[in-house]
Amino acid sequence: xxxxxxxxxxxxxxxALIVTIIFVLSYLSIDxxxxxxxxxxxxxxxxxxxxxxxxxxxxxxxxxxxxxVWDGSFEISAGEVVRTEPWRFxxxxxxxxxxxxxxxxxxxxxxxxxxxxxxxxxxxxxxxxANGVTVTLSKTNSSTEAVVKTTQGEFRxxxxxxxxxxxxxxxxxxxxxxxxxAATAITKLPMSRIILPRRPTATAVSGWLICISRPTRNSxxxxxxxxxxxx
Length: 231
Known about the structure:
Elements: H1 2-42, E1 54-60, E2 68-69, E3 72-76, E4 80-87, E5 94-96, E6 104-108, E7 110-113, E8 128-129, E9 131-138, E10 145-150, E11 153-158, E12 167-170, E13 175-180, E14 194-195, E15 211-212, H2 219-230
Antiparallel strand pairs: 1-9, 1-13, 2-7, 3-6, 3-10, 4-9, 5-6, 7-8, 10-11, 12-13, 14-15
């Protein structure tokens, strides 16, 4: 009789545990769906890229074997420069504001060895990587000519002659221009809120990591807190 009571109590305990687990999982699922719906509702709807815009990626320093300065400018004969975005910028690189002009942009950038984790930092094997800018244009025509002037040399191309899948090289192969899809940002985030650790280590991250956080007086400390959170 006592054995039957024990078995009955054990069965009730197991059943209660199963019911509890099902309840917890259901609650978590509902909570997650609610939070996802709330985030989606708060997020602004994405803006479709303007079909009249064209974007070109300008890569500089493709064959560099040592640090090289590629400060320069981009100008078009007809049309407007809608926006200019950095491509593989590092510390010290920047895009300068050109007040009062819609057809020219200037930048400061230098090619440098690729960043490596602490365990892979071998100066003898660190290749210099190209960087550059992506420019998005509008109101161009078949005769629009672009002029790129840099401290390493100057080159020109007609925007109509570079189509998707085609690229042109200049300055003996040191520079290249290709066409890329035009993109539109769905939100504007100040650069002060983008924190990139200067010296990532293998124990801290397993790949590139960008932490988005509130601006602080000590951005490196904020990045460290983010890294510790992400481990």
